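Researcher: Next entry in the queue.
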Amino acid sequence: METAIADPTVTGDGAGRRAGGGRRFGAWCAALLFAGVSVVVGCRTADTDGVTPVPQLLAFLPWLLVPTAAGLLFTVLARWWTGAVWGVLLLGLLAWFIEPYGKTGDPSGPPVAELRVLTSNVEFGRATGALIAEVRREKPDIVFVQECEYTCDAALQRELADAYPHRQAVAGGGSEGSVILSRFPLEPTEGVRGTMGMPGAVADVDGHAVRLQLAHPMPPLPDQVPLWQRELGRLRDAAAAEPDTPTVLAGDFNASQDHAAFRRILDTGLRDAARLNGADRTPSWPSRTAPAFGVQIDHVLVSKEFATQKSRFLTLPGTDHQAVLVDLTLHT
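Model: Structure for this entry, 332 residues:
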């Protein structure tokens, strides 16, 4: 009786082909992941927001560490050492760009006034009741409200007029309405032209003029990226218009520090109040659906005359944006 003996050469070749095919598959997976990340990182390096889907992906730049790490794992399994160098380079660039952007530093002059500022996108007015309750609890001096449609506007006037006798608003339905409420006297300004309301004013804060500007540009939807860039550009022009006047620019910017159009605003000399308190990567949207994977697009930007004492992000039922509350000190 003869016993069949497997040919070791055939078995080895089959295993080798399978191993080679697995390595090629791993290398292809790594290359695809690295290529996608490289497009976004390349635009960030070139200081441009690019075209769809780059602006949308730039908002979640820190999360690109995940596909990059996965790609590195594939390169190790595939023994593709050139790809490993590619992945390590991407990791280094991502780590560099995740660092906070913009100027810091404390004002040199003496303090002359304290003020608390709150900004909130109430999502088509749905969080109006929650905002009113939070305003009564926290007692901010100035309140910036986005997506405050007609019923929201009426509720704010009815419930908060005694505490906030001064207001500047752009009336509108849906997401178009916006309001600035203030304990301090306000002198209206032209504001910033946009698809959604962006009112402006000059507040008399204990005898000191402070420019107030609400921000709410269009979001970078796939077919509206040029409009989003133009409206952020107008906010940048407004921020740079009076560099010697203390300024607070606050609202839903629909942009993070990883967007070039937003960094242009910071380049005028404004500082992000949350960044000054070490909260520059705290997500503010979407607070309802995926808060842990969100991005900070709601900001309070202040000029060099302000110091930030404290900043907090508040969850309001009814909206997918967290409100931003900051305590500021105005210096001469």
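Model: The longest strand covers residues 111-121.
Researcher: Noted, moving on.
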